[in-house]
User: Fold this.
Amino acid sequence: MKEKPKKKKGRSMLQSVQREVYKNWSLYLLVAIPVIYLIVFKYIPMYGVQIAFKRYQPVRGIEGSPWVGLEYFEQFITNHKFWSIIRNTLCISLYSLATFPLSIVLAILLNYIPFRRFQKTVQLISYAPHFISTVVMVSIILQFLDTRNGLINFLITAFGGEAINFMGRKEMFYHIYVWSGVWQGIGYASIIYIAALAGVSPELHEAAIMDGATIMKRVWHIDIPSILPTVMIMFIMQCGSVMSVGYEKVFLMQNDMNLQVSEVIDTYVYKQGLTSSMPKYSYSTAVGLFVSVINVILLVTVNGIAKKASGSSLW
Assistant:
C-alpha cells in the first residue's frame, strides 16, 4: 500500500520533466551544443590519459601496453631541465598575471569618456589585435624588432643609439612576450568589465555627484565594488591556468639565443611528444597530466581564498 504513492509521485515527476523539456526544447537544444562539445573533445579523450602510467607502444595499443606506474612522473621531476622549465613557466605566467588589472583600468576609462564616437573608435582599435592569429602576431613582433629593418631599431638609430638585437637578448624575452600579449588582448579582455559597468545603477552616480564626489571617488566607491564579483571570478579563472602558458607564441618566438629562458612546459611537451625523432608519448602525457593537476590545485586554493576574502567564487 505504501509503494503505490511513491510510484505515482515518481511518474508525475518524470511527466513534469518531460513537459518542461518539450515546452523549452529550443533552450535545451542550445545547451546541448556546448555539452556535446565538452563530452566529445574534453571527456572522451581522458581515456587516453592512462598512457601516462603505461609504456605506450602504438603497435600494442593503450590496453596492451604495460603499466609502469609513476615512472614518467619521476623521470620528469628528476630531469635536469625540470627547475628551469618550471621557473620559465612561472615567470611568464606571474608576469602576465601582474598585468591583469590593465583591462579593468581600460574599461573604467572607456566608461567615463563622454564622446561616444571616440569611445567606440578606441574600443575598435583595442579589440582588433585580438583577432590576429598567433603566427601573424609573432611575425609582426619580429618585423618591428628586426635588427636591420625593424621600426624600433630605426627610431633608436635615428636618435643616435645603436641597434639592439631584441630577440637575441634573453633578458628581454619576458618583456616582449608579456607586453605584446597585453597589446593583443587588453581590449578584448575589457569587454566583460565594460558590460559589468553598464549594469551599475545610474542613480548611484547621480547621488554621488549631488554629494560632490569626484570621478576618482565614484570609481573607488561605486564602480569597483559593483564589478568586484566579476573581477574575482576572472582572476580565479586566470590563476587556474598559471602553469599553462601555451606553446604557439613561445615556440614561434624561440631561438638558440633565448632558449634558456623561453623553454616552458608546453613547448617542452610539444617537442618531446611530437617533434622528437623518437616521440615520447607516455612521457609527454605524464608531464601534461602533472601540469593539469597543479592547475586544479591552484584553482581550488585561489577559489577558497577568494570566497573567504570577498565572498565571490566560482562555486
Remarks:
- The mean pLDDT is 89.
- The chain has two domains: 1-35, 79-310.
- The two ends are 42 Å apart (CA to CA).
